[in-house]
Amino acid sequence: MRRMGASTIHQTIDRWHAYLRGDDPDGLDALLADDVVFYSPIVYTPQEGKAVTALYLAAAKQTLPGTGATGDGTTGPGTAFRYIKQVLADDTAVLEFETSVEGTYVNGVDIIRIDDEGRIVEFRVMLRPLKAINLVHRQMGEALEALTAGE
User: Fold this and answer.
1) Would you tell me the crossing angle of helices 130-149 and 50-63 to the nearest 10 degrees?
2) Using H for helix, E for strand and C for coil, what is the string for 109-125?
3) 14 CB contacts (<8 Å, ≥6 apart)?
4) Residue 1 within any structural domain of the chain
5) In angstroms, how far is the first alpha carbon of the chain from the final one?
6) 107-135: string of b/e by CB count within 10 Å (b at 16+)?
7) 77 and 103 in contact (C-beta within 8 Å)?
8) 24 backbone dihedrals φ, ψ, rounded to 5°
9) How far apart are CA 9 and CA 79, in angstroms?
10) Is the pLDDT of residue 22 over 80?
11) Which residues are bridge partners to 105 per DSSP?
């Protein structure tokens, strides 16, 4: 693991959060390195390149937004996507999230590694429980099909 300024990973993750909030809707292209590799919790083979990674992240953004916050800070059906823990060190960020999809609780981790310029070179997603994985698998397939149909 190489050492880099702590501020680089913080700046990249701040930009990632801005993209997810909708503050920078076109920001994903600048965040991703051309040779980024995406590791899906569903697909065994790593997905290589900016275009396919952007496609998977766009589909995930559609699939995992949740169905609206409960308003009382609790988790469960109706909970919107949110990061609940964040660990940043050197060139890597680990972001734990939770949401609810079709009433099913989804808990996962995004592991993001960046290059010296602060671009994402590796994006891994891990999910639990199994019921959520199966549901997200179905919905991601539908979202990817819809996104690629427009090409």
Assistant:
1) 120
2) EEEEEECCCCCEEEEEE
3) none
4) no
5) 39
6) ebbbebbbbeebbbbbbbbebeeeebbeb
7) yes
8) -140, 70
9) 28
10) yes
11) 100
What are the φ/ψ torsions at residue 115 (nearest 5 degrees)?
A: -95, -175
pTM for this entry: 0.82
How many domains does one find in the chain? 1
Beta strand segments in the chain, E? 32-39, 47-48, 82-89, 92-101, 104-114, 120-128
Interior CA angle at 138 toward 34 and 47, to 5°? 20
DSSP state of 26: T
| Number of CB atoms found within 10 A of residue 98's CB | 20
Question: What pLDDT digit, counting tens, does each position of 98-136 carry?
Answer: 988 888 899 999 999 999 999 999 999 999 998 888 888
Q: Tokens standing for 101?
A: 């999809």
Q: What are phi and psi of 49, to 5 degrees?
A: 110, 155
Pair of tokens at residue 39: 């590791």
Spatial CB neighbours of 95, under 8 Å, sequence gap ≥ 6: 13, 83, 85, 86, 109, 110, 111, 112
Domain of residue 85 covers 6-149
Mapping DSSP to helix (H, G, I), strand (E, B) and coil, where does residue 73 land? coil
